[in-house]
Amino acid sequence: MPSEWIARHDQTVALQGEWTLAHYRDIKSALAQSDIGQLTHETVSLDAITRLDTAGAVLIIELIGVEKATSVAEWAAELPKEQQALLIRIAEAMNAPLDVAQPSHSRINQALASVGLQMVGLWSQQRQLLAFIGLVIATLFHLALRPRRWRLTATVAHIQQSGLNAVPIVALLTFMVGAVVAFLGATVLQDFGATIYTIDLVAFSFLREFGVLLAAILLAGRTASAFTAQIGAMKSNEEIDALQAQGLDPIELLVLPRVMAMLISLPMLAFVGMLSGLAGGAMVTSLSLDISLTQFMITLQKDVSVTHFLVGLSKAPVFAFVIAVIGCLEGFKVSGSAQSVGEHTTSSVVQSIFMVILIDAVAALFFMEMGW
Known about the structure:
about 375 residues; 14 helices
């Protein structure tokens, strides 16, 4: 029997030397060549072991058994305490059952747990949004009386990107929707001999709702995603950390110019959407109902007051602020990977559209109750 790691003295088997990973193969070979089996009932001495690591401890436990290794402090008191603790810890790990029975849950419990997690996430998301809105408003008031710190160049650049460049798509979409609304209204009202009221239908729907709503939804998908991607890319590249290291405020540099640009752009786009929707309705009434453009304008002036235009336009700044804040907030949430940028970009679009429709529904109920 090799005497470098194993020695037998009468009824005692002494383990000695360095039982470490470096000698793992040699010790394993020596055990295979020896005539000893598992030393569960024999006297084993560990006093001569000079070094011991995890690999050596596993070999010793396989040799003496898990139960004997667990009680090593009782029969091998001369072994250093740290080596005793190592043997006990590994023995307990080797004795632990591998197959842990998973708790069974009913589908109802799983569904309720999923709903609960979604509600907790929604509540946390809304708290973050409210806190970020407060931070943006506080920074805006702080800079209101400091014109030198206004970022006019950045604001104008964002007005061009979010407002001017979006005019064609907003005008085209609202024109087509106006034509569809006029066509459907004429189809229904024709049965009652009231096709003239198609003008009122198009005017009321676009001045109060569709003009500003379609423009806001387009900007939610077009501009909010751009804000999130831009700020998220800066977050991934640690550019925001660099700004803070230089003593600059990211809210002042990155958020306020985008918010101000949206506050200026969306009312103008809503106005363009209203005019385009009315133009689409006028085209359909002129081609399908033989209502001339002059008669369309006279009816519009006589039946539709300017209050409807003001009601619709008053919602534009609220929509603009919410869209810009959500887009910027999701950009700051980006963790640093390309996948995170994509996830938060999608989240910003979904949240913006949801909040726009929710606020529009609440505003419609409010204006209806007020009689406006």
